[in-house]
Structures are given as structure tokens and as C-alpha cells.
Amino acid sequence: MTSNSRYAVGVDLGGTFIKAGVVDAQGRITPSSRISVDTGCEKGMQWIVASIADAAERAVEASGLAWDDVSGVGLGSPGVFDFDNGILIFAPNLICLNGQPLARLVKKELAYDTSVYLENDANCAGLGEQWAGIGRGAKNLVLFTLGTGIGGGVVLDGKLWHGSRGVGAELGHQVLFADGVKCGCGNRGCLEAYASATATVRRFHEAVKTGKPSALADKARAGAKVTSKMIHEAAVRGDVLSRDILEETGRFLGIAVVNMLNIVDPEIVCFSGGMTGAGDMLLNAIKDEAAKRACGPGLKGVSIVFGTLGNDAGLIGAAGCVFSKSGISA
Amino acid sequence: MTSNSRYAVGVDLGGTFIKAGVVDAQGRITPSSRISVDTGCEKGMQWIVASIADAAERAVEASGLAWDDVSGVGLGSPGVFDFDNGILIFAPNLICLNGQPLARLVKKELAYDTSVYLENDANCAGLGEQWAGIGRGAKNLVLFTLGTGIGGGVVLDGKLWHGSRGVGAELGHQVLFADGVKCGCGNRGCLEAYASATATVRRFHEAVKTGKPSALADKARAGAKVTSKMIHEAAVRGDVLSRDILEETGRFLGIAVVNMLNIVDPEIVCFSGGMTGAGDMLLNAIKDEAAKRACGPGLKGVSIVFGTLGNDAGLIGAAGCVFSKSGISA
User: B159 in contact with A at a CB cutoff of 8 Å?
Assistant: First the structure.
């Protein structure tokens, strides 16, 4: 490893897959370097740590580069971190890693002596989009990851924001309905409990129970498990209830956008993650609601967008942590 | 003026009074320097600008110091600013100043050639408390000003946060009830529309209309205009409805505190402004609700407090802007 290396390894640790790739200083993944392996959660901590190191090593090998060309390994992981003590405190889908010094473990496991940077996966996606995606050149960017839950990444003055205790940027846990439904975090009425993929499906079922007709509901009654993707597809095919539900998701997200404008005031609010597959139908609903609610300068000087890095945002941002020395380092 | 001066003038521009004082580098007001003059809104822009300059000059004179001892004048003003172009865009109670380059006008008016820094008044209060009040030594502090409206000040890494467009930290305009009452800002369900002094009085009247008994309601029917201070006083005297209403205000503020923990994650959340006169009855309600809703590390490592600078927070923070070169400078 040299200090002026032009590459970093990005690793995206998910509950199902570990993805790795070698990323250059402009945030581009070296195509030949892409690696994906099963996480194998059930096999325990040592297995996962070995798999992360293995994926990183295979990515470098596949890239045709040498480790001397690489500045370090950036690892994006779900969960809450103790940045001061270098501990992964809690990640619901990776229970065996909870309480572990994940960055140090991975560094020890790697066959090469290189730096490891550990960062929250949604933060990585935020940094990725700000560094190499739709937010290139922006100083301040807020990103929501839309999936089973809603994560957040906040870049301020070009740097990831962690907060005093390392638990900031949990943007899915802003309250939209003070007396609303219970959220998994223990709070009530959080954005995540209304606008995540899971919550979108829940609202669909709730609406069906009130007797609203839907072709998708007929399918569900025949045994199909409804997903947010199916709701979007049904909406495209003209299913009115599906469209209403999806646009309501957009409405909730639009309210959260305005909260972000009023609190953080970034120049870009970006959405990433699986639900962005719903495309303009979702994005237009977000923008419409935000336009209705934004005060002062309104939406002037703000872009509300989907990310351009797709599923690579986390991996690229993890590599970006190496270049910007962000996160827990070992 | 010398660059290593040990004093700055702080000016707090309100709709009714202009207050000024000379502040030392530790954030203490020189007692003899305190000046208060009528704003005289109805007399127009030139009058107000002259009054600001006059108050600053009289404060220095009264302090017994010379202008050579003073680094500059910090001016805290309500309103929204265009920081890039140095313009006070909009302040509802100072209409004649809207669209004006207030810092430049004051600099021109001063008999002494010194720097002028213009900053939002709630931001000043936040900086004041972080610099010289309850938040001394904190890196990250969030402050709510509780008055007719609810303002906000956010200090990150020891510096005031303005956002990309200068409209960040408007903490009163986070949505607590997505489909709630219309807010003055054009949005719906904002914290300000539920927990400001004005909103507290409104909720009191709404509760009375539903038939709930209250000694204060009897007074109101006899012609007294209810204020949030009267609601607090009635609560202290044992009026159940008044207590419920005030504690509900605390509950709403507690929800906003948790939003701040989840988004910004400061080590201190501070309340300032007139309504803090309600003391522990309000503060305990805020803390109780925050404790119920905080996730992850909960309230560990966070202080939820009232400011210690009282009505001086804005003036002291305005002077702090001179030392930290914050805000619009002229």
C-alpha cells in the first residue's frame, strides 16, 4: 500500500450477499473486479469476517491490480456503530457481529497489511452519490435509502455526518404522525413505518381490508405474497388502488424532504434503494408534495432526485470512505 | 479596531426593542454597557438602521471602552437571509427591512469603521448558549427558541449551520402531524403550529370549547386574554386543564427532540425563549416524551436542558458571531 494509491476496495456487506469491487479515485468500479459471495449469516462471525476478506482479496486479484495500487478496504455494513470505540453495536440482520470490532477483525483477516474503514451502509450510499453519482460537486446532500426499512446518509460540507454519538442521519426515524403506528425502533409514527417497502405493502393490505377493489388484491387472495414491486407493476397496469398506495408513499417521502430542507437545507435530496424502481410515478409524487409544503425559497436551488449509481452506491461509497478516511478505521 | 480586540458589540434586533451590549471574549456582557431602545418599526428602514448604530455606539460609550478595543458589531435579527448576497430576505415583524442589505446599511451608518456581522436571531441564541452558556464546550448543539413562533439554531463542530441556501435550522417547521393544522409557513402540522406559545393558547381554547372545565377559562370568558404564561400560572395553582395543555406542549417538543437526535445527533438539545418560564413542568414533560421515543442509545450522552443565558442568549451570540466571523459580514 502506498499513500498515493489510485484505487480502493469497496465492500458492501448485506444480510444475503457480500459484494466487492475495486474502485478508482473517480469512483468508477473496475468492471473485471466485481465479486459477489453469500454472506452465510448462519455460519457465524468468523465465517463472515473471512468471507469479507476473501471477497476483497478476490476483487483485487480479478482487477489485475496489485495490493500496492490499493489504499485500503472500505466496508459498508448495516447497523449502528460506536465510532469512538470501533464497535458494531447492533445490526438486526447480522446478529453474530453485534458488539464486535468488525474493522479490526477484517484487517486481521486480510492477507495484506492495509487500512480498513467501516461505515454504515446508508452513509456509504450517501457518500457514493455525492462523490461519484448524481451529487457530484454538491457540498451538502441528504440521501434516503428506500428498502425494507428507510436509512439515511447526510453529507455536510463534503463529509459524512455522524453526530455526537454516531447515531445521526437515521432519516427513517423522523416522526410524521406523532400518534401514528408503532415503529420497529420503539418510536411512533416514523417515516419508515409509513413509507418503506414493508410499510407500503402494509398500507396496501389495510386499504384492501376496507373493501377497496384491486386486481392485485384478487391475486393476493389467491395466495400471492404482495411486494412493493408488485404494487408498482399493478399501478403501471392501471390498478387504481396500487397507484394510490404508491403515490401516498411518495407523499410521505415528500413531507420528509421538506423536513430535510427546513432542518439541513442541502442542495440535493437523493433517493436510493429498491423502491426507486417505481420510477417517475414515485418521484413525481415526492416532488409534488414537497412543492406544496416547502416554505421560504420553496424548491429553488434544490434537486430532488433518484441516485444514479443504483445498487453500486454503497460499494462505491465504501471505497470513497478509504479516500476520505471516513468511518471506523483499523 | 484591532484584529486581536478582546470585545465585540452584540445587538439583538426585535420587533419592539433593540438591545445592545459589549461582550468580552468569554461571552460576558460588560454590565454598564447594556442599552435598550425602541425599534420604532413604523418609522421605517432608515430609522431602524440609525437606531441599531446608535445603540451599538451608546453601548461602547457606556462600557467605558474605546472602539479600538472592539472587533466589530454582531447583529441578530429575525428573518430569513440570503447569505451569498448579504440580503435580509424576509422578516415578518420588520417588513420595512425586507430585501435590504442590512449589514451594509448598519456598517455605513456607524460613526466608526468596524466590521458588522448579521445573523438570524435564533442562530445567535444557539451560538450564544454553545459559546458561553449551558453548551460551553459542546461540539454539536441544537437550540429551539420557544416564543410566538419556534425558531432554531444548530451548531455543528462548533460552527453555526446555515445549509446550502441559508434556510436550514428552521426547527419549528418539522412536521409532527402530516395532516395537521395549517402552519403560517404554508406547510401543515409543523411543530410551531402545535407547541409555540401561540399554539399552546390555541389548544387551550380548543379544549375549553369541548367543555373541559378550567378556572382560567372562566377568567377568559370574563374578558381576559389568555397567554401561555397565564396557562403556566394556572397550572401551578392546580388548574388541571392548564397543566394538561402545557404538558402536551412538552410532549410535542419531546417528539421534536427525538427527531433531532435521529437526524442531527447533538450532545445538547437546548430550549430558550419566553416559554421556558414554565420551568420544570415543561422540561420534565419534554424529557419524559423523549425518553419514551428515543431509540438506539436512548438519551445516553444527551442533555435536554433550558439555556442559562436567558434573554441575553441572542445578544451574546450576536457578539459571538464577530469572534467566529459568522453570518453576513460587511
Answer: no
Higher pLDDT, B41 or B268: B268
Sole residue written with cell 473496475: A30
Q: What's the ipTM?
A: 0.95
What average pLDDT score do residues B154-166 get?
A: 96
The CA distance from B157 to B47, in Å, is: 38
- Please list every residue in chain A whose beta carbon sits closer than 8 Å to the beta carbon of residue B177: 177-178
User: Which of A80, A258, A266 is facing B163, going by the closest CB pair?
Assistant: A266
- Which stretch of A19-23, A221-225, B21-25, B324-328 has the lowest confidence by average pLDDT? A221-225
User: What are the chain A neighbours of B156 within 8 Å (beta carbons)?
Assistant: 156, 161
Q: Which residues of A, range 20-79, sit inside 8 Å of B by Cβ?
A: none
Label residue B318 by pLDDT band (50, 70, 90): very high
Q: What is the pTM of this model?
A: 0.96
User: Which of B159, B174, B194, B286 is the best substitution to test chain A (most A C-beta atoms within 10 A)?
Assistant: B174
What are the tens digits of pLDDT across the range A176-230? 999 999 999 999 999 999 999 999 999 999 999 999 999 999 888 888 899 999 9
Flag whether residue A159 sits within 8 Å of chain B, measured between CB atoms. Answer: no
Query: A186 CB near a chain B CB, below 8 Å?
Result: yes
Contacts of A253 in chain B (CB under 8 A): none
